[in-house]
Amino acid sequence: MNWFKKLFTKEDWRLVHTLEVSATWDKEPGTVYCYLFESNKGNRKYEMKSTWVGMTDHPLEQFFITTEVYLKTVFPWMAGRKVPGISSYSEVPDDDFMNHIKS
């Protein structure tokens, strides 16, 4: 029954690292922020935001996957490798602990 509980428990996601890439899109300078998340079950995902006005997610992702930062950092991390400088889920304290420390 322990496997059943582990299988159906909700995943707890934590922000483990933020990458910042300065670039130019359509002759307009801007910045792309890539947020790396890891769950307590070992799953990984990333989300991107940019400073460009009107940039939708699809062109942003198509642009970002061609950058050197993605190829050397995000891609190996998403494949499950340990990348220097990126913490794992167990190395990042949860929000309750951080709030307790701040007060």
Name some characteristics of this structure.
single chain, 103 residues, 3-stranded antiparallel sheet, 33% helix, elongated
Plain-language structure description:
This protein is α+β, with helices and mostly antiparallel strands. The chain has one domain (10-90). The chain is built from 4 helices and 3 strands. It has helices at residues 2-8, 57-64, 68-78, 95-102, and strands spanning 13-25, 28-39, 44-50. The chain has a 3-stranded antiparallel sheet, covered by helices on one side. A hairpin with a 4-residue loop joins strand 2 (28-39) and strand 3 (44-50). The N and C termini lie far apart (39 Å). Residues 99-103 have low confidence and may be disordered.
Q: What portion of residues belong to β-strands?
A: 25-35%
**Low-pLDDT residue intervals, each spanning 5 or more residues:** 99-103
User: Which structural category do the helix and sheet elements fall into?
Assistant: alpha+beta
Silhouette: elongated
**Biggest β-sheet: count, sense, barrel?**
3 strands, antiparallel
Strand line-up across the major sheet: 1-2-3
Q: What distance lies between the first and last C-alpha atoms, to the nearest angstrom? A: 39 Å
* DSSP strand count: 3
Q: What is the total number of structural domains?
A: 1
* Count of helical regions: 4
In which range does the helix fraction lie? 25-40%
Order of helices and strands: HEEEHHH
Mean pLDDT: 84
Radius of gyration over all CA atoms, rounded: 16 Å
Describe the SSE topology.
Layout: H1 2-8, E1 13-25, E2 28-39, E3 44-50, H2 57-64, H3 68-78, H4 95-102
Antiparallel strand pairs: 1-2, 2-3
